[in-house]
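Record type: ASSEMBLY
Status: queued
Input:
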Amino acid sequence: MEPNTGTAETRSNGTASDGDDVAALESLQFTDEIHRLISATTTNNASSFTALLELPAPEAVELLHSPESAKLMAAPAPNIEDFKASFHFPSNSGLIERAARFSLFAGVGNNNNNTSNSPETPSNNPSANPQKAVKSEPAETESSEPLVSDPTVEKRCIKRKDREKKVKGSTKKSKTAMNESSEDAEKLPYVHVRARRGQATDSHSLAERARREKINARMKLLQELVPGCSKISGTALVLDEIINHVQFLQRQVEILSMRLATVNPRIDFDLDSIFTTESGSLMDSNFPSMVMPLVWPEVQVNGNRQQYQQQWHFDALQQAVWGREEVCNNYITPENSLLSYDSSANSATLHSNQMKMEL
Amino acid sequence: MRPPSSLRQEFLKKWMMGLQRYSTSKKNMSILERKKAIKLSADVAIASARNGTTCWSRALIANGYSKDGGDDKHLVEQILGPESERLIMKKVLTGGASVCNKRMRSKKILKRSCGIQRTRKFAPQVALASSIAKRLVRKRTQILRSLIPGGEFMNDVTLIEETLDYIISLRAQVDVMRSLASASELASEP
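Status: finished
Output:
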């Protein structure tokens, strides 16, 4: 295998006809980048990282907190790679750039977003690879020079600079990717936008188009998030669903707070007492599955539970809940729960001690 | 999609912290008072999980802060933690409502003055599908703005981002509250 250095720019790499090589090289570079990112953000609490590992949409939401680096993940990730295909091995420069950007963001304190990007990139890039491999070749043949500052339609759109990757001749989708990728770039003055064939090129319509693309990408994320929205087409109906969902959730909060008010004469809930209530009926609720990460550090399925027996008297319950979790909770997976347990190990003991002291 | 368990854990922690506050204060609250207290502490807790990075969280915290009674202020302080509370309240109060209010008010005035002319010109286009669609979308975004806390101060793009984040946080909140409610109901059965 070739060394996976960031500067491995070779035309030979570009002939990514050998999918296997590409994939293997990609995986090497992914692990590399992951290590880099992890080391760069070790100060992060592990919980956020593992939490972000769980779901793509919430991750995307986390990413939205950073200056629009989410767009990278939203749609154009495969397309962005097309650009780089012309002069670098695609994933290389893409990953390196993102890593550079992340380290920049890390200083700003957007560590969460950085770590969230790292699990995303490996997941996105493998899917992007075959496309890259195919698309890079025509892109390459068309462009004679790697780095291009084309005579494009320049536009001071959102005061971000473009990423100086303009492959000559790549049209259509590439522009939207360019727009969004350039918006994602670090806060630099311009964004360079290329007009599509047959479309107006004045700055206003370009700005509008860029804005519309942004909105559409976010709407797609929302569609994924709200159940039942992915089949609906049309912004108004999707917005309807979203509104209904938000209203439903808000109503749920009201109802639940009423329930909680009625169930307990005292307003502070004694979690310990709730736990030590010996009832197999606790298995029916999701509470143990959720709170277990909170108060049961390092639950192991086959491991020794003696140390916890004294504290919680829940030996059998533990076993049962473990089995139950995988059945009851539709979304949780064993790996997820293990991850969350491990990550909450420290916070769990602290919290349980704190709770005991307070109550 | 399921909210990340870290979010839920954090929410539960902060919520419990907030509720502790009430145990020390007056006893024998009526049921409605209890419900309000629970809801308020839950809202502030889930908002503080975002630590002032999102607009809706700041708006929620501002809501919790400005209610009458020093109790609620202390609640916010307790949940947020003293240092971050200072930072967040700074963000809330300065970058927040007053400035946005003025901006939105002037925007509305401008729109109204322009809109009068606009409708006169474009009245015949009523039948156009795109304009109908646009009108529908605009109505929906108005409704959405009223739902999301602090939504009146956001532009379209921010609104959608905030909605995303808000939905996830709401889901986490509902999950935790539901679990706690069912667990305590079961615990208090006999």
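Annotation: Residues 151 and 159 of chain B are 7 Å apart (CA to CA).
Annotation: Chain B touches chain A through 66 residues (CB under 8 Å).
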